[in-house]
Design a protein that fits this description.
The complex is a heterodimer of chains A (787) and B (161). Chain A is an alpha+beta fold and 787 residues long. Chain A contains 20 helices and 30 strands. In chain A, the strands form 8 sheets. Chain A has a 7-stranded mixed sheet with strand order 3-5-1-13-10-11-12. A 5-stranded mixed sheet of chain A has the order 7-17-16-15-8, sandwiched between helices. The chains are: A alpha+beta (787), B alpha+beta (161).
Amino acid sequence: MPKDHGIGASSKRREDVRFLTGEGNYTDDINVNGQAHVFFLRSDIAHGTLNSVDTSAAEGMPGVVKVFTGADFEAVGSVPCGWQVTDKHGEPMQEPRHPVLAHGKVRHVGEPIAAVVAETLEQARDAAEAIVVDITDLPAVVDMKEAVKADAPKVHDDLTSNLCYDWGFVEENKGAVDAAFEEAAHVTTLELVNNRLVANPMEPRVAVGDYARGTGDHTLYTTSQNPHVIRLLMGAFVLGIPEHKLRVVAPDVGGGFGTKIFHYQEEAFVTFAAKACNRAVKWTSSRSEAFMSDAHGRDHVTKIELALDKDNNFTALRTDTYANMGAYLSTFAPSVPTWLHGTLMAGNYKTPLIYVNVKAVFTNTVPVDAYRGAGRPEATYQLERLIDKCAHELKVDPIKLRRQNFVMEFPYATPVAVEYDTGDYVATMDKLEEMADIAGFQKRREASEAKGKLRGFGVNCYIEACGIAPSNLVGQLGARAGLFESCTVRVNATGGLVVMTGSHSHGQGHETSFSQVVADMIGIPEEMVEIVHGDTANTPMGMGTYGSRSLAVGGSAMVRATEKIIAKATKIASHLLEASESDVELKDGAFTVAGTDKSVAWGDVTLAAYVPHNYPLEEIEPGLEETAFYDPSNFTYPSGAYACEVELDPETGQVTVERFSAADDFGNIVNPMIVTGQVHGGLAQGIGQALLENCAYDSDGQLLSASYMDYAMPRASDLPFYDVDHSCQTPCTHNPLGVKGCGEAGAIGSPAAVVNAVLDAMRSGGKDVEHIDMPVSPNRVWEAMNG
Amino acid sequence: MTQVNMTVNGKAVSGEVEGRTLLVQFLRENLGMTGTHVGCDTSQCGACVVHVNGEAVKSCTMLAAEAGGADVATIEGQAAPDGTLNTIQQAFQDHHGLQCGFCTPGMVMSAAALLKDNPKPSVEDVRHYLDGNICRCTGYHNIVKAIMAASGQDVSAIAAE
């Protein structure tokens, strides 16, 4: 029987009521008395020398409060990068200055040049049209391999080249890897592109800066996945505002997918301008602005090679990747192609020798950073495409080749510096084969062929590393932040709890699932637990939500804080029960004395904590409020196996996903309904990457896909129903809930399954194509079929 | 500035608008009804869908002045006066048809318009009708399922949870 409450129950989401009735409180719904509006004048050319910005006409336009240019921010700090990668020679990466408003040069289409603050947005926009910008065009660099040539135009004149870093991992293994390739019985090589994507949460970014001159207090309302991180980065590095004078609020946030992790210059601008104008300043991004100012994702060009012995065992893996950084380093950009990508290259396989080279490159494009999966989809895609190609070359079954090389024993130390604690890759593959009804595939293929269509089947295995940690390790790897999480649990006198978490929910349903955990631990109804998040004023310093970390890290902090609460409440209860503490236990919301019928209810204990008349004041303080910070000892390693079945119309090149099966191992599950929903969303983004989405630039650095007319977002009619299973559960061994994280799996595990299925369909039509790049558009398929 | 009068969720309202003021701006900024959302600037995403004289309309694509005299319905007016969710809203909660909630008001209003015209749609009908509503969170599985359930059809064959 499924549980109806607590851990393991598909509790309905409490968030839904406000969202379904129009009572959500998103950042754009916040209006501060007396606020002005800002419109950013953005560069419409990719690379140029900024000779002058004449704002004189704009300043006289109706409603204009103040016009800002780069010169106003010369004394202000650079928008910081939160991760410093060390290259293969032991040198730090090249790190350019990132101004709030462009100064001296513009480096990508969409870079803000000037900002008009006016009474209304329309007035600000009208006035921005009166600003005269004199730019001398410079040749733009867009293609990464061109950008690293010696004579390429430089994005940053003060850097030695457009190469941010050249990273080798593990550099000491390179010789052994190369030697293994020399001795290989078979080598498979594949070159591919991981297409640039735009995260596109449905809520565009918004930032409202407010300033109280009387107290010197700043407030920033912003669409962020991690308000404490924004407060620290912006306060300490850009504007010089100490945390105690800066409150950052991220209320209901309409989706993030990574792109709302980062500190953006618009946040710094409204905070700065609110003080300069002595009134609140609001910025709401249009979707067109979002396309040219939200950090993009992916954009890798890779060559990958696999060496095998005569028995088809993987003996070595070697990859060579160019990773686009765009024009500036976004907050966590350098970590994505390195520590979130290179460390995942073992996948689910016991390949003994691996070497990963990554060249991170500056180009005249929007900065690129983490997008759902962040490095792990790029690793998975190349590896799983390569294995399929290899199986085809060797004429062996791709599932059999995978199974033969699976890691079977745990813990397993990979040759790329991580240790998988648990997993069962055979179990998820067994489950997948059952779900995908492989036995029935031939019949379905025949049915498709009877309609003049081709049908293909593709699989993909994945491993991901979630809840990146511990802090002392990531510090050694270049992180300029800790990666713990925090929680304060406040028990009220009448027994209800307020749980203040450093995690942030922007669609994940934490208000429901976190309540389930605490309620389960105490044995009280979920309705007695309130989850508070998103406001630095009423939550402990926490690192926020990304990398599928919330339950594994934030949930663990919550468990630790709740354990402290229970320990103290047990002391109080033992006093009330006149029993030894060791004899008192909490069960179903009451403290009982073992072997007796003596009991005291949860609410009586909490009341005693705040009305301490009969209370051991000499031993413990009144009140019931505890805080915990949790720093994990390792990543978590969710894994799974996915299968895709496509139908391909050889007349048009149109591909449709007919079946998609996903067998995941997320360890323990708190709310199966929410977990399934997370997988659905990830699958849609992965299938979108594989078939539809592409962020396109022309050779001059013009962004060609800057609206939903041009960027193909997956629609309801593009996608199937998904078959999702998470009954294979190998709990994480090092966090108290045994959970692994589920938010990114769908996006990580699906693209290769789709492309493998498309190539299988093409082969069934007599066209043996080695590879086709994403998005697998009708045009590309038709050309491949007819090429 | 011109005066515009209309009925929103059964209540007479009025306000001063510019000629260029969009209906969604009038709702959000003049009336403070922020349940209707703006997710794009090309009339693609559908987060702003409301009903004007009973028809689903993208309120980012209609001028406030054009809606003068009209009967407008928004997400704020869908639940019963005591807060009880309507059939479609309840189905969205029951079937986890929303995550971040940003596209949800438009989805609910589109679903209502669909079921008014087509009370027993097929899955294909629902998916086709939602082409003007983009969701980035759910992959549509549970939205389609919720709308099918709201139409009174059996959804047990659609994968659980």
